[in-house]
Amino acid sequence: DVNNARVIENSIRATTQFFLSSSGLQPGSPRVATQTRLWFNPGLKEALYIVPGTYAVTLWIFPSMLSALAMVREKERNTIVQVYASDLSAAEFLLGKGLAYLAIAIGQALVVMGMGTVLFGVWFAGDPTPLLVGTPIFLANSILFGLFVGSRAGNISGAIQGVAILGFLTALLLSGFIYPLSNIPFPLSVLTYVIPTRYYIEITRDAFVRGAGWAGVWLFLLALIALGFLLFNASRQVLSRMQLPD
Question: Deepest of 54, 57, 61, 159, by most Cβ within 10 A of its Cβ?
Answer without folding.
Answer: 159
